[in-house]
Amino acid sequence: MQGRKSLPPAVRRRFQTGRISLDLVHTGGEGELAVWEIVHTAEDLSHWLSVILEIPGITAEDADLTAFRALRAALSRAAFGTPAGIPVDPHDIDTINAAATEPPLTPRLHPDGTRSYPDPAARAALSTLARDAIDLFSGPLATRIRVCASDNCGLLFVDASRPGRRRWCSMDRCGNLTKVRKYRGTHDSGE
C-alpha cells in the first residue's frame, strides 16, 4: 500500500477491482487508509453502497456505519494479506461470516426485463458484499487477488487474465506510466 497517497481520490473512486467486495475496500479505512476515507456519514454510506452495487436508493442509518467499518476492515486485511500469502485471520473470517448472515439484497424481475430491489437497506447491501467476499476468498480467484505493482498506486484488483500475470490495476493508467518512467530512466541516464 506504499505510495497509495499519490493516487488522486477521484481515480480511486472510479476504479473497479473486478469484485464488488474489493471495491468496498477502496472507500478508505483505518491507519494509512484513513487519508482516503470517503464514508463519514450514513448518507455517504448510502451513496457509496449504491455506486459499488449499482443499485440506486440504498438506505443507511447511523447504526449501519459500525457494521460497515467492521466489514471493510476485515475485507481490507484479508484482501491485502492474500497476495502476500498471509492467511485470513479467524476474527476477520467471523466478521465476514456475521455480515453474510443478514438477508442479502433480493432482486425482482419486471415484465419489461428490468429489475429492482425493493427497500434496499445498507445491512442487506453489506450482506451481499460479504457473500461476494466469501465466494472470492473460498474460490479459485483467491489466488488472483493482486495489489497494483506501480510504485505510486496500491489498488487491489482480481487478475482475470488467462495467463494470470497481470501486474497493474490498469494498463491505461499504471502500466503505461510505469513503462514510460522506466523508458525515460533508461534513456535519460545514458545521455
TrEMBL record:
Highest taxon in the source lineage: Bacteria
Q: Which residues form the Zinc finger CGNR domain?
A: 144-184
Name of the protein = Zinc finger CGNR domain-containing protein
Organism of derivation: Nocardia rhizosphaerihabitans
